[in-house]
């Protein structure tokens, strides 16, 4: 059992967090990349909340529930907790930096394809009339008999014959 309190250095804090992540994900410590998001190491939202609770206890202070979403990598988290945050990434230039002065221009147009609606007008008609574009799987898409089983527990099978399909999607 570790004693509550702040680790003596940023490196010690990082080692603590790596060991907590390794314990929660069953990954070897050496395989954990501090620059990768915690989710890439297999930490889901429940695991993240558990990690946060353990870290709070180990550090002896309450940590906000949003901390791991604000600092999604071990490097960013430890930088924040130790007060040595990495420099922010350079921001791309703004539109004002790129555009030479004011130029009156408007881009007008809309294109879309949805199940049961090959264009915007048909899509709005579907919405306006409350129509349902869900259909049985078209035979030209795949053989539903080969993939369908009413039992959702059967591996490798789907338990529906219905979906939203865009006509001519392969063209």
From TrEMBL:
Record's keyword terms, sorted: Acyltransferase, Phosphopantetheine, Phosphoprotein, Transferase
Enzyme class name: transferase
Enzyme Commission designation: 2.3.1.94
Domain Carrier: 8-85
BP GO terms, sorted: DIM/DIP cell wall layer assembly; fatty acid biosynthetic process
SUPFAM superfamilies for this protein: ACP-like, Thiolase-like
Leader sequence residues: none
A Pfam cross-reference name: PP-binding
InterPro entries: ACP-like_sf, Ketoacyl_synth_N, PKS_NRPS_Biosynth_Enz, PKS_PP-bd, PP-bd_ACP, Thiolase-like
The keyword Cytoplasm is annotated on this UniProt entry: no
One Gene Ontology molecular-function label: fatty acid synthase activity
Lineage: superkingdom: Bacteria
GO cellular component, one term: cytoplasm
Record flagged with keyword NADP: no
Name listed for the protein in its UniProt record: Erythronolide synthase, modules 3 and 4
Organism: Stigmatella aurantiaca (strain DW4/3-1)
């Amino acid at each position: 059992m570790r004693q509550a309190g702040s680790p003596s250095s940023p490196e010690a804090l990082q080692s603590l967090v790596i060991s907590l992540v390794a314990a929660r994900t069953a990954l070897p410590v050496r395989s954990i990349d501090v620059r990768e998001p915690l989710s890439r190491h297999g930490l889901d939202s429940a695991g993240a909340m558990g990690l946060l609770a353990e870290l709070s206890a180990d550090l002896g202070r309450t940590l906000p529930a949003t901390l791991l979403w604000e600092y999604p990598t071990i490097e960013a988290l430890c930088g924040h907790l130790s007060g040595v945050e990495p420099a922010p990434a350079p921001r791309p230039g703004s539109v004002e930096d790129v555009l030479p002065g004011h130029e009156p221009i408007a881009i007008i147009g809309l294109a879309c394809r949805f199940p049961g609606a090959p264009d915007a007008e048909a899509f709005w008609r579907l919405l306006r009339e409350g129509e349902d574009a869900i259909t049985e799987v078209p035979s030209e898409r795949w053989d539903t008999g080969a993939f369908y089983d009413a039992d959702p527990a059967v591996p490798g099978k789907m338990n529906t014959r219905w979906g939203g399909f865009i006509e001519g999607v392969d063209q």
